[in-house]
Write a structure and sequence with these properties.
Helix content of chain A is 0%, strand content 59%. By secondary structure, chain A is mainly beta. In chain A, strand 4 and strand 5 form a beta hairpin. Chain A is globular and about 40 Å long. Chain A starts with a strand and ends with a strand. Chain B has no helices and 11 strands. Classes of the chains: A mainly beta (111), B mainly beta (115). At the A-B interface, strand 4, strand 5 and strand 10 of A face strand 5, strand 9 and strand 10 of B.
Chain lengths: 111, 115
C-alpha cells in the first residue's frame, strides 16, 4: 500500500536558517504527493504538490520541494525561516480518492 | 472561490444529543471528504463521497452518519457520541480520482467536544 513517512516529529531552526522537512514515499507507481501546513486550531493549507510535471516544485510562502525518484523522497525546504513558519507540516500521498497523511513534523522557529 | 466552509466552528454536545456538522464548497468539486483529527495526530479519513455517492467508509462507527444532499454540500450527523469522539472534524473537497488537479482543499474544521 502507498504511504509516506516523515522523519523527525519536531524540527527547530533559528530565524533566517534553512528549513528542511523530510518525507519519503512508498509507491510502485509515480505518486501524487503534497505538502500541507496546519496552524493551531485551523484546517490544512496546501503548500505545494507534485504531479509529475516537474521534479522541483515551488509552493507558497517561499517553500519548495524536490521529487527524487532514486531516493523515493519529496523533502520540503525553505532557504530562510521566518517566525510565521512555525506550524505543523504534513506530507501526503493521493491514492485514488484517498489522501493519506504522514505523521507530521512540528516546526519551531527561534528568534 | 477556493473555499470550503464548515459550520459550526465549535460544538459541545452531550452523549445523548443529536447534532450535525455542515460543509459547503462552490469549486465544482465532485469528491468530498470527512476527516477526524485528534490532538498532535494527522487527519484520519472517515468518509469519501464521489459524485454524491458514498465511495469509502473507513469502518467508522454508525454513530457517525454522513450525507451528501447535492454536489456542494456535505453533512455529518452525530448521535450518541462518546467523549473519545472529541476531536477536530475536517471537511475537504477535490476533483475525484487522480489527475493533475487532484489536491484537496480543506475547511477550517469543527472543534467537537463530547461531554
Amino acid at each position: 500500500a502507498q504511504s509516506v513517512t516523515q522523519l523527525g516529529s519536531h524540527v527547530s531552526v533559528s530565524e533566517g536558517a534553512l528549513v528542511l522537512l523530510r518525507c519519503n514515499y512508498s509507491s510502485s507507481v509515480p505518486p501524487y504527493l503534497f505538502w500541507y501546513v496546519q496552524y493551531p486550531n485551523q484546517g490544512l493549507q496546501l503548500l505545494l504538490k507534485y504531479t509529475s510535471a516537474a521534479t522541483l516544485v515551488k509552493g507558497i510562502n517561499g517553500f519548495e520541494a524536490e521529487f527524487k525518484k532514486s531516493e523515493t523522497s519529496f523533502h520540503l525546504t525553505k532557504p530562510s525561516a521566518h517566525m510565521s513558519d512555525a506550524a505543523e507540516y504534513f506530507c501526503a500521498v493521493k491514492v485514488s480518492d484517498k489522501l493519506i497523511f504522514g505523521t507530521g513534523t512540528r516546526l519551531q522557529v527561534f528568534p | 472561490d477556493t473555499e470550503v466552509t464548515q459550520t459550526p466552528k465549535h460544538l459541545v454536545m452531550g452523549m445523548t444529543n443529536k447534532k450535525s456538522l455542515k460543509c459547503e464548497q462552490h469549486m465544482g468539486h465532485r469528491a468530498m471528504y470527512w476527516y477526524k483529527q485528534k490532538a498532535k495526530k494527522p487527519p484520519e479519513l472517515m468518509f469519501v463521497y464521489s459524485y454524491e455517492k458514498l465511495s469509502i467508509n473507513e469502518s467508522v462507527p454508525s454513530r457517525f452518519s454522513p450525507e451528501c444532499p447535492n454536489s456542494s454540500l456535505l453533512n455529518l450527523h452525530l448521535h450518541a457520541l462518546q467523549p473519545e469522539d472529541s476531536a477536530l472534524y475536517l471537511c475537504a473537497s477535490s476533483t475525484p480520482h487522480g489527475g493533475a488537479d487532484t489536491e484537496a482543499f480543506f475547511g477550517q474544521g469543527t472543534r467537537l467536544t463530547v461531554v
